[in-house]
Amino acid sequence: MARDIHEVLRSVWGFPTFRPMQEEVVRTVLGGEDILALMPTGGGKSLCFQVPALAMGKLCIVVSPLIALMKDQVERLKRLGVRAKAIASGMAPVEIDNALESAAVGKVDFLYVSPERLGSDLFKARLPRMPVGLIAVDEAHCISQWGFDFRPAYRLIGGLREVHPQVPVLALTASATPEVAADIMERLAFRKPRILRGSFLRPELTYWVNHAEDRLGLLLRIAQRLPGSGIVYLRERRGTVRIAQFLQHHGISAEAYHAGLEIAERDRVQRQWTEGSVRFVAATNAFGMGIDKPDVRCVVHLEPPPDLESYYQEAGRAGRDGNKAYAFLITHHTDGDRLRERLESTYPSLAEVRRVYQAFADQHAIALGSGEFEPYPLDLQQLARRTALPQGTVNNALKALELGGCLALSESARTPSRLMVRASGTDVHHLRTSDPVNGPLLEALLRQYGGLFEEPSIIDEEQLAHTTGRSVVSVRKLLAGLDRNGVVFYRPRSNEPMATLLTPRQDAARLTLDPMALKERKQRSSVRLEAMLDFCRDTSDCRESMLLRYFGEPARERCGRCDRCVAMAKANTVAGPPARWLKDEVPMINAPDRP
Is the pTM higher than 0.85? Predict the structure, then answer.
C-alpha cells in the first residue's frame, strides 16, 4: 500500500505543503498515467518524481544528461537517508555492475542514469529484474529532434518502456515549445497525451534589454545601483576573468567561474557567492545548474545567448525567493553578425570530424572494434595539435560526433575519489597485520569508511594522509599500488572532461554522419537564434509577452515593468497620465553618473 504523499513530503524533506502544480503531477503519476510536466526553472521538478517513488516503495529510474546535477541530487538524497545511486560516463565497470545489481535486488530507491548508459549490455541485462515503479526523464527536451539540446542517446529510453510497458513515465523540462512538447510525448510512447503546463510567467522578474556601446559602464551602474547578489553571463571563458577583475577594480566583490577552473577554485567561488561574501559571479553557462540560491537580485547577460530557451533558464535564476529581481540583456549592433558566424562555425565539415575522430583514437591507442563504453580523458589542446585544427573546430567536431551517437561528452564535472575493497576479508586482514607500509592505510580506510567491501565509497586522500602521518602524494601512490595488485578498486578524483565511446571504434575514413540530420539541426539552430535576436530588437511589444508566446502560453496584459512597457508609458504621459499598466521602473541604470 502506498504511503501518504504529504507524510512523505514532511518526513523526508520537512516541507508542510507542495508548491503549485507539484501535487497534481505526483497524483497523476501515482494513478499510473504518463505525463509531461512543463515546469519553469526553480519550480521544484525533482520532488515530482521523488515523492511518488518513495510513496510507491518501488525503484525510480531517472534519466538525466547533467552529470554534475545528477551527482548533486544523489548526494542530497543520501543525506536525507534515501537510497540513491548514479551511473554516468567515467565510472569503472565494477562500480556500474555494483550499482545495477543493487538496483535489481531492491536495495536502491533512485537509480540516476545518463542516457548513453541505457544501451549498455550491463544495463540491459539487469533491467528486467529491476522492480521499477516510475521512469522519470529529466531535461526531456533533449529527446526531441526539435529541442534546443537534442541528444541521440535519449532515443534509448524507448528500451525502458519495452521492458516495463506498464510503468508510468514522467517527462520533465523547464522549457519546451508546443512543437517540442508534442514530439517528446511521441518519442516516449505516451499511452495518451497529457501535458501539465506550469506558467512561464515570472511576475517578480523584470526583463530589461539595453542597446549599449559601453557594456562595461552599464554593467557597473547595475552593480552599483542594485543591492544584493547577481550573475553576469558570458559565452566564453576568457571574458569571465576580465569581467570579474573589472568589477573588483571598481570595489565590487566578484569572482570568475567556468568549467576550466580547478575543482577547489570552483567550489570556493560557488560557496562564497552562496554565503554572500562574494556579490557577483561572472560565468559561462557552466554556472547555474543545480544552484539554488533564492535571493539573486539580478542576472546580467553581456551578450545574447544562442536561443530563448537558454536565456529564459539563465535569467530565471534571479528572484526565486519571489521578491523583485531583474534580468538585464545588454546588446550591441554587432551581436547578430557575430552570433550567426558562431553558428556557422559550430558545424564542421565531415573531413574535419573524421580527422578529430582519428586523432582521438590514436591519442588513446584504441584498436579498431574496441573501446565501447570506455571513458577516455579529453585533451583539446593535444587534439588540436594532432589535427592542426583550431580548438574551437575540434570541440565542435566532438559535439558532432556526440550528436551522431558515436561518443558521449562529459563536462569537467567534479568526480571525487572513490574506492572499494576487492580482496577477501582474510587477505585484507593479513595485509593489515603484516604489511608495515600498506597495513596502516588499510586500517585507516576501514575505520573511516563503512561498506567498502560492498560498494565504492567516496574517500578523502587528505584525511587519510593526516590519519596515517603520510603525505597526500604518498597516500595516492600507495592506493594506486593496491589497485594494481587487485586489493582495492581506486579511482582518483578527476577534473578532466571525458569522452565515452558509445560504439566500437570505427575506421575514421568510413565514418559517416547523416547529412540531412546535420542540415536540419543547423536550420533549427538558426530559427532559434533569429527568435533570440527578434527578442533583442527595439519593438513596441512587451518583453514578457514575447517570451510567453514563444513558449506557447497566451500573453496576458502588458507586464508594465520591462523596458518597452516603461518607454511606452513615458511616451503616453505627453498626452495624459501614465498608462494604467505602468507598475514599476528599473533603477536608473541609464542615467549619467553624478559628478
Answer: no
